[in-house]
Amino acid sequence: MQAVRTFLKRKGIEISLHRYGIDALGAMAQGLFCSLLIGTILDTLGTQLGLDFLVRVGGYASAMSGPAMAIAIGYALKAPPLVLFSLATAGYAANALGSTTLSGGQGAGGPLAVLFIAVIAAEFGKAVSKETKIDILVTPLVTILVGVGLSAWWAPAIGSAATAVGSFVMLATDLQPFLMGIIVSVVIGIALTLPISSAAICAAFGLTGLAGGAAVAGCCANMVGFAVLSFRENRWGGLVSQGLGTSMLQMGNIVKNPRIWLPAILTSAITGPLATCVFHFEMNDPSGGVASGMGTCGLVGPIGVYAGWVADVASGVKDAITAMDWTAMALICFILPGVLTWAFGLLLRRMGWIRPGDLTLD
Questions:
Q1: Cα separation, 296 vs 86, whole angstroms
Q2: Which residues are CB-contacts of 16 (< 8 A; sequence separation ≥ 6)?
């Protein structure tokens, strides 16, 4: 057993929840952002501006989502070059086969399949890397065969499972919009601020529709909320870095004083059901849900909502983009998160639960 531990340590193979559930998942979201999400944004811009070049570029970027995610995962796992490059094939296969179900229908499990399969393929590739004199043949062969083999074996089942979970959440939200609006908004908002990837979670289960709208509400409540809540400590730099960057910057402060999270969580519990019950705020972005978990990071959440409107109008599902749509976006994504979190924060400051300096970023 000691020999196995020594071998794994020498190869940089660390089997842990942090390595796979945080490092790999977070990297996968970055790969997804740099391919499918950017592709969707470019496609939307190209369509609206009549620029066919942007539409084509967006299509190319979106088509590379599987390889991009797998390579990002390999990078996070510190895979050597031959393993890293070989993961492109494994990622393509996992994403393609995970996007189908066991019955052959359209599935939502592409990103989830890539996560599981790329991790295993990368670790197998690392295990054999530089162990033979013909490393340039052995390492790519092992990485690709493991990745593609597992994709053929597991990916359709993962696609079916992810589709079932996503469909259940979306159906439950349609049937119980108030309760599920709270649950989805709070849970995804918390995931956004934790060192895991809310975007990857939403993409893995294909959260769109009302559930996607609730997810956007929760993410915006945390990002805009923390940006406004901590303005007196962090001023304009903190406003931009958290409001357009990530509320994850506050994790160190949350560990020291978890009560600073309450204003954003309470706000998400309010804006979530407002999104589902009052405004019928939906996220139907063509990227399949990834924008649902992005919030105001680079304004991806609002852009995704707009892209969904455009797609719905083009398909005839929606007659037109109305003034109420824009009002809902402004309230759910920007105004209410800022106002409500500031108000809750003011109350907690007066109660002594939030003290001066508790929200200061290093």
A1: 34
A2: none
Q: What angle do CA 136, 95, 19 make, to 5 degrees?
A: 70
**pLDDT tens readout for residues 61-109:** 989 999 999 999 999 999 999 999 999 999 999 999 988 777 665 666 7
Cα angle: 75, vertex 202, 104; to 5 degrees: 90
- The pLDDT tens digits for 178-194 are 999 999 999 999 988 88
CB 45 within 8 A of CB 51: yes
Cα–Cα dist 332/270, whole Å? 10
Contact 203, 111 (CB under 8 A): yes
Cα distances (angstroms) measured from residue 71 to each of 19, 81, 119, 141: 15, 10, 10, 16
End-to-end, the C-alpha distance of the chain in Å comes to 43
Angle between helices 135-175 and 198-205 in degrees, nearest 10: 80
Distance CA 141, CA 271 (A): 50
Least confident span in 205-219, 251-265, 294-308, 346-360: 294-308
Q: List phi, psi (to 5°) of 176.
A: -125, 70
Tally of CA atoms within 13 A in the half-sphere of 329 that contains its CB: 21
